[in-house]
Amino acid sequence: MNVFTRILAAGLLLLDAPAVAAQTAPTHGVRPRRLAIRNAMVIEGNGTPAEGPKDIILEGNRIIDVVSLDPVAVKMGEVKRIPADVEIDATGKYVMPGLINLHGHVQDERGGIPQPLEYQLKLWLGMGITSVRDVSSETPKTLQLRTRSAAGEVAAPRLYVYARYAYMPVPKNEVEARQRVRDLKAQGVDGLKLFGMDKDVYAPVLDEAKKLGLRTAHHMAVDETNAWDAAKGGLTSIEHWYGVPDAALLSGAQQFPSNFNYADEGMRFRYAGRLWREADPARLQEVLKAMVQGGVAWNPTLDIYEASRDLQRAETQPWFTEYLHPTLEKYFRPDAANHGSYFANWSSTDEAFWKENYQIWFRAVRDFERLGGVIGAGEDAGFIYQVYGFGLVRELELHQEAGFSTLKVLQHVTANNAKILGEEQRLGRIRAGFLADLVVVNGNPLEDLKALYPQRADAAAGPGGGVQWTIKDGIPYDAPRMLSEVRALVKAARTR
Ligand SMILES: [Zn+2]
Hints:
By secondary structure, the protein is an alpha/beta fold. It is built from 18 helices and 17 strands.
């Protein structure tokens, strides 16, 4: 009997009759009236150290109490164990807020080929993701899914819908731009997803969005607007990284070869790998400071560019064997018609430049946080060899590689993401009064972020233990069961 089971045994003796009767395990997909997660090591999500054992009590879709279990007090029978209808014994496990994926796209097709929505939703939940900021998809469909998810009618993460601003016809002037923002607001979206923007409409769009209470996520281009404009206009978050190093080019323009064509993805990604090296280090610090002062957060999505620095790693991920849907597999193959599938002529030279690119990028992300900036975490999966859910865990590993402690990394994907969503009063922390979005992890993600990957059948597997329970809005989902359903779905799709 180890110390934890002894504490548990002592604790159980103290339970009064209704609590003992409540030794029921959760039912997958059914929200109990009151659920207790017992003896958990808790990572709150706000960057404070892990602490436990604790009992976390959920009622409906809220966390109502987080109770520290002092071993001595437990032994003396002086700890009140709050009874519950349903219990999870988290002895030896870590409990943290549900992961928030700050950059997702709801996808039911890839390259025009249908892909079951269930595949993506189950992967997200099975990997511990309880919220997704959808940054452009088929907005009307995703808004319906948001409603059904909020009502608990479908097993899906909480959705925040940031609709694409520049759908056809693209607004040509300030009047049309402001009207577009109002039209999107009327559709009921939570925010806007911007791609490359011209200067004359950028400030009006940000201004109109702010007036209407819409947040803004911007995938910048190498363009006439960059991080300086974002800082001035009060953009919510820069997605990826374009717009940051370009704002620190002393000459104001990158050194492209004369035959460079921005519309050619192979070329675009090749020279993107040579952009950070051209940023002036001193000017870059000024850019980062301006972003902090302008309240602009940064969601770097480090995972989605990794194939550029190591194509073989990206192509041969062990998860593909069982989890890669044939639709995605086809989409990832080099094809100029599929966004992000630009590797037809990728070279060791490209990889060497990209490896250097990452080092400068890592430093900038780290400096940004040190200057007081808010770093978020998102995966952008469904593109460039990233599979839903797995991409986000890889993103966390890359945050660690960038130089952040795992405690900070887990803060990026929980409390920081909640802040960027404007939900910091109720999401992203394990705290009484907050929404009941949590994950029970088999293992210690502070020691090893790979604990968030599911266990692998092959002997070469790392220590991944995976998520045991994903609780979203108070609804417990058996994560290994979700993942086994995904594997079955993939298997069936392959034999079709
Ligand atoms: Zn994206």
